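S1.2 Input.
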Amino acid sequence: MKSILFIIFTLVVTLAQAQPRVVTFDSEQEESLPKEESNVIKFNLLELMSSGDYSLYYEKALLNVLSAEIGLGITSGDNWGDFGSDTYFYNSKEENKIGFSFAAALRFYPSELFEDFYVSAEYKFRKYRWDREVMEFTSNYSAVISSIDESRRHSIARLNFGYILFLTNQLSLDSHFGLGINMVQEIYYNNQSFILDEKKSGVKPRVNLGLKIGYLF
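S1.3 Output.
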């Protein structure tokens, strides 16, 4: 994971240094030319560490104060979901498998597009998968060890409040806080009925913290 983060960060910094914004100078002040960039590509550092979600995000300007953002990635290891799940203690996990995630959001910037404060309405979907080792019984009552594919899905709708700070002319930090709801669906092996079972947790409140590194182009 550290190697992946290092490679991504190196690429972003290289791009930021390769294409600086043009700046003009006069005798009294320094002014940036109006920016023509309308795209941002970014990844979420806190999401990687807390949710096992390796997503890449793309934001596109729609109007002077409005943009759309989409995200797509892979998942591996739902630690927070394990902690809050009643099914986690049935058996020990054998191995995490690759799942997927996607996101879609509309962002409103009161002052200037891609800068300062913003509010966004977002939908986030995550699916986690893993193998679990269980004991099953054959027709002649012999016990065998089997590997079962289990999964957990998160469907999250939330409202985010954020602030964007530029580190260089192209490189930015996007920090945000969100409140929303989460619906969880689990497919797990039931030790009592000896079959794959489904459990839905219903709607629960969800708090979100994020820190994205972005590149404006």
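S1.4 Remarks. Residues 1-34 have pLDDT under 50 and may be disordered.
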